[in-house]
Amino acid sequence: MIEVKNVTKKYGNFVALDDISFKINEGEIIGLLGPNGAGKSTTMNIITGYIEQTSGEVIVAGYDMEKKAKKAKREIGYMPEGVPLYTDLTVKEFVTYMAELKRVNRKEKKEKVQQILKETGLEDVQKKLIRNLSRGYKQRVSMAGALVGDPKILILDEPTVGLDPKQITEIRSLIKRLGKKHTVILSSHILSEVSQICNKVIIINKGKIVATDTPDNLEKKVVGNNTIYVTVEDTEGKIDKVKDKIKGLKSIELVKENEDKTKQYVLEADKNVDLRKKVFEQFAKEGITIFEMKKADATLEDAFMKIIDEGGKK
Ligand code: ADP
Ligand code: MG
Q: How far does Cα 144 stand from its chain's mean position?
C-alpha cells in the first residue's frame, strides 16, 4: 500500500531523514515511534506529498508520489500535527468545506458529511464553533477532515498529544475502529500508546530507522532473558535441587536474606520458558513455600531507550 524507498530529506545542510526505507501493507495500523525531532512529521509530510524528499521514492497505492501526485494524494487522508485551523467555522461547516476541497460529488456531499460526523462521534456538536470545543473534540474534527473523500490510507500525526486520559482512550478506540476500514499510520513519542493501537512499530531516531517489528517482538528482542524474583521460606539447601529440574533455567542466585528468615532469589531462564509456571510447580514438589514471585520485565519504555541507544552506536 505504501512503499518508502531510500528516502533522504535535507533541510539545507541538515539531514532530517537519512536513507529510510519501509513498506506498509493494506489494512495495517503502523506506529511511527520516536522522540521529538526524530523525523516523524517529516516522514509523514513526504508520504502525503506535502513536502518533497531530497532523494528516494515514495509509492502510494501504486502511484509514484512525484509523478502521479494527484492520484496518490487522493488515497490519503492526513491529519497534521496540532489542532485544526478554521476555528471560526462550525464543525459541520469545516467538514463540508473539506468535502468541497476534496471535490466530493455534490449530490453525495451532504450524506457523506453526516456519515463522517457520525463515524467520529461529532453529530451532537456539529453546529458548534470549532474554537469552543474541547481539545479532544478538536482532535476528532481534525480526524473527520482526514476522513473526507473515503481515503484508503489515514495518516495521523501525534493524534493524542495534549489530550487528557479520557480523551486519549476515546481517540485510541476511534483509531482502532477506523483501522478496520483503512490502512493507518500514526506517529507518537509514547511507546505504550503505539503498542496498544498498532500491529507494527517503526522506530525512528535522528532520521534513521532503528527497528521495525511487532510491539511484542520488540519487547522480547530487547528484554532477552526471562527473569523473575522469588521470595521463599528458609530452604536449607532445597533450592539447589530445583536447578536441574526446570528446563531452560540458567541460574538461581540469592539476592538477599530478609529479617523474617525468608530469602529472595533471582532466577533467569531462556526467553521462551514460562518460568513462573515452572517455578510454581517445581517449588511445590520440593516443598518450598513461595511467599512472593514477581516478573522483572524491562518495560517497553526501557526497550525503546535501549533500541535507540544501540541504533545510535551503529
Ligand atoms: P518529529 O516529528 O519526529 O518531532 P520532525 O520531522 O518535525 O520531527 O523534525 C525532524 C528534524 O528536522 C528536527 O531536527 C527538526 O528541527 C528539523 N526540521 C523539521 N522541519 C524543518 C524545516 N522546515 N526546516 C529546517 N529543519 C526542520
Ligand atoms: Mg512531529
A: 21
pLDDT greater than 90 at residue 14: yes
> Which numbered atom of ligand 1 lies nearest the CA of 11?
25
The answer to whether the beta carbons of residues 288 and 237 sit under 8 Å apart is no
- Residue 60 pLDDT greater than 90, yes or no: yes
Quick one: which atom of ligand 1 is closest to the CA of 39?
Answer: 6
Domain 2-220: homologous superfamily in CATH: P-loop containing nucleotide triphosphate hydrolases (3.40.50.300)
pLDDT at 225 over 90: no
Mutate which of 42, 54, 210 for ligand 1? The one with the most ligand atoms within 8 Å of its CB, which is 42
Q: Residue 42 Cα, ligand 1 centroid: separation in angstroms?
A: 6
Ligand 1, CB within 6 Å, residue ranges: 11, 14, 16, 34, 36-42
Determine contact, residues 141/91, Cβ cutoff 8 Å: yes
Which of 22-26, 173-177, 245-249, 252-256 ranks highest by mean pLDDT? 22-26
**Gap between the Cα atoms of 107 and 130, Å rounded:** 25
DSSP string, 124-173: GGTTSBGGGS-HHHHHHHHHHHHHTT--SEEEESSTTTT--HHHHHHHHH
| Atom 12 (ligand 1) nearest CA | 16
Domain boundaries, the chain: 2-220, 224-296
CATH topology of domain 224-296: Alpha-Beta Plaits (3.30.70)
